[in-house]
Amino acid sequence: AAVAAAADEGIAVSEQALAAALAVAHVSCGSFHSLCVLRSGAVCAWGAGAPQLGLGELADAPAPQRVGGGLSAVRATAAGVAHSAAVGAKGGALWTFGDNSEGQLGIGSVDGACALPQRVTALAAIRVRGVACGGFFTLALTATGDVLSWGQGTSGQLGHGDFDCEATPRVVRALLGKHVRQLSAGAAHAAAVTSA
Q: Strand order in 94-99's β-sheet?
């Protein structure tokens, strides 16, 4: 096998090993940006240069660039209009970044933006196994099959029986005990697949 030099580390690796490390395991697309998770667990982003890329700057990224903030060991991502989320492979931590104008980052406020990933601390004791980003809201699927939602709720998309916005994750009571297996989110609506 041919050998390629890993310039950053000064280590020689086979092209096959390098290709395996860069292989894409998961991809998600938002309105103006895309994310991918590599087999290594690293996340790359590209598209319109707003904070949803997680690069720490607001410049456009026409080609994939590694998301900053120490984000690694990720198994899945989701992308909304101008925000993004990532689920950790170990422990199920949830990270969000981008626009927070409707509380869609789940950090307890409804203003500003985060240009680097930050952990959703309200979910620190909960193992998240899936995530979906709608236009300006986010859904998290827990390891026990429960669903939490937050962000813009003006169309009832959060599933709380009202039209309120939520700045922190809130359990969707109508889905408790339904053993949700999959979530999906559109611009102002959401759907869940249950096993009950």
A: 74-79, 83-88, 94-99, 113-119
Instruction: Quote the CA–CA distance of 43 and 145 in Å, as a whole number.
Output: 25
Give the residue-averaged pLDDT of 69-90: 96
Tokens representing 152 are: 């813009």
pTM across the whole model:
0.89
Contacts with 125 (C-beta within 8 Å, 6 or more apart), sequence order: none
Count Cβ atoms within 10 A of the Cβ of residue 151 and give its class: 0-12 exposed, 13-18 middle, 19 or more buried. Answer: buried
Span 120-175, pLDDT tens digits: 999 999 999 999 999 999 999 999 999 999 999 999 999 999 999 999 999 999 99
CB–CB of 137/100 below 8 Å?
no
Residue 47: which H helix or E strand, with range? strand 43-47
Cα three-residue angle 171-74-146, rounded to 5 degrees: 20
Helix or strand or coil: residue 166? strand
Strands (E), 51-136: 61-66, 74-79, 83-88, 94-99, 113-119, 128-133
Please return the burial class of 65, using the count of CB atoms within 10 Å of its CB with bins 0-12, 13-18 and 19+.
Answer: middle
Instruction: Pull the structure tokens for residue 34.
Output: 């895309």
